[in-house]
Amino acid sequence: MAALGAPLCTLRALLRELRHAAGRSYRDSPAYRYVLAAFRAHRVTSEKLCRAQQELHFQAATYLCLLRSVREHEALHREYHGRG
Protein backbone atom coordinates (compact mmCIF):
# COMPACT_ATOMS: atom_id res chain seq x y z
CA MET A 1 0.00 0.00 0.00
CA ALA A 2 1.32 3.43 -0.88
CA ALA A 3 1.86 6.07 1.76
CA LEU A 4 -1.10 8.35 2.25
CA GLY A 5 0.75 11.52 3.16
CA ALA A 6 -0.54 14.11 5.60
CA PRO A 7 -4.28 14.21 6.27
CA LEU A 8 -4.31 18.00 5.88
CA CYS A 9 -2.85 17.72 2.36
CA THR A 10 -5.48 15.14 1.48
CA LEU A 11 -8.23 17.37 2.87
CA ARG A 12 -7.03 20.39 0.90
CA ALA A 13 -6.72 18.39 -2.32
CA LEU A 14 -10.17 16.90 -1.78
CA LEU A 15 -11.71 20.34 -1.26
CA ARG A 16 -9.89 21.58 -4.36
CA GLU A 17 -11.42 18.77 -6.43
CA LEU A 18 -14.86 19.53 -4.99
CA ARG A 19 -14.38 23.15 -6.07
CA HIS A 20 -13.51 22.00 -9.60
CA ALA A 21 -16.57 19.74 -9.69
CA ALA A 22 -19.10 22.14 -8.18
CA GLY A 23 -17.93 25.56 -9.29
CA ARG A 24 -17.82 28.69 -7.18
CA SER A 25 -20.59 27.81 -4.71
CA TYR A 26 -18.91 24.64 -3.48
CA ARG A 27 -18.92 25.77 0.17
CA ASP A 28 -22.71 25.54 0.25
CA SER A 29 -22.69 21.95 -0.97
CA PRO A 30 -23.51 19.06 1.37
CA ALA A 31 -20.33 17.26 0.25
CA TYR A 32 -18.13 20.15 1.43
CA ARG A 33 -19.83 20.29 4.83
CA TYR A 34 -19.69 16.50 5.23
CA VAL A 35 -15.98 16.26 4.40
CA LEU A 36 -15.06 19.03 6.84
CA ALA A 37 -17.25 17.58 9.59
CA ALA A 38 -15.81 14.10 9.08
CA PHE A 39 -12.20 15.31 9.21
CA ARG A 40 -12.92 17.37 12.32
CA ALA A 41 -14.63 14.45 14.03
CA HIS A 42 -11.77 12.02 13.31
CA ARG A 43 -8.83 14.15 14.40
CA VAL A 44 -6.10 12.50 16.43
CA THR A 45 -5.96 13.97 19.92
CA SER A 46 -3.27 13.70 22.61
CA GLU A 47 -0.94 11.60 20.42
CA LYS A 48 -3.35 8.68 20.46
CA LEU A 49 -3.26 6.46 17.39
CA CYS A 50 -6.81 6.39 16.13
CA ARG A 51 -7.78 3.63 13.70
CA ALA A 52 -10.91 5.49 12.62
CA GLN A 53 -8.84 8.54 11.66
CA GLN A 54 -6.56 6.43 9.46
CA GLU A 55 -9.58 4.72 7.94
CA LEU A 56 -11.17 8.08 7.15
CA HIS A 57 -7.90 9.28 5.63
CA PHE A 58 -7.72 6.22 3.39
CA GLN A 59 -11.34 6.67 2.28
CA ALA A 60 -10.73 10.37 1.61
CA ALA A 61 -7.64 9.58 -0.47
CA THR A 62 -9.64 7.01 -2.45
CA TYR A 63 -12.44 9.51 -3.07
CA LEU A 64 -9.86 12.12 -4.09
CA CYS A 65 -8.44 9.68 -6.64
CA LEU A 66 -11.96 9.11 -8.00
CA LEU A 67 -12.68 12.84 -8.34
CA ARG A 68 -9.36 13.51 -10.08
CA SER A 69 -9.86 10.58 -12.44
CA VAL A 70 -13.37 11.72 -13.39
CA ARG A 71 -12.17 15.28 -14.04
CA GLU A 72 -9.23 14.09 -16.14
CA HIS A 73 -11.46 11.65 -18.05
CA GLU A 74 -13.91 14.43 -18.89
CA ALA A 75 -11.06 16.63 -20.11
CA LEU A 76 -9.70 13.84 -22.31
CA HIS A 77 -13.18 13.05 -23.60
CA ARG A 78 -13.79 16.69 -24.57
CA GLU A 79 -10.41 16.89 -26.30
CA TYR A 80 -10.45 13.64 -28.25
CA HIS A 81 -14.16 12.90 -28.75
CA GLY A 82 -15.02 12.60 -32.44
CA ARG A 83 -17.29 15.27 -33.78
CA GLY A 84 -18.68 12.98 -36.39
TrEMBL record:
A Pfam family per the record: Complex1_LYR_2
- InterPro entries (alphabetical): FMC1_homologue (IPR037667)
Gene Ontology cellular component list: mitochondrion
What function is annotated for this protein? Plays a role in the assembly/stability of the mitochondrial membrane ATP synthase (F(1)F(0) ATP synthase or Complex V).
- State the family named in the UniProt similarity comment for this chain: Belongs to the FMC1 family.
Protein name (Swiss-Prot/TrEMBL) = Protein FMC1 homolog
**Which organism does this record belong to?**
Ptilonorhynchus violaceus
Taxonomy, top ranks, is:
Eukaryota, Metazoa, Chordata, Craniata, Vertebrata
> What is this protein's gene name?
Fmc1
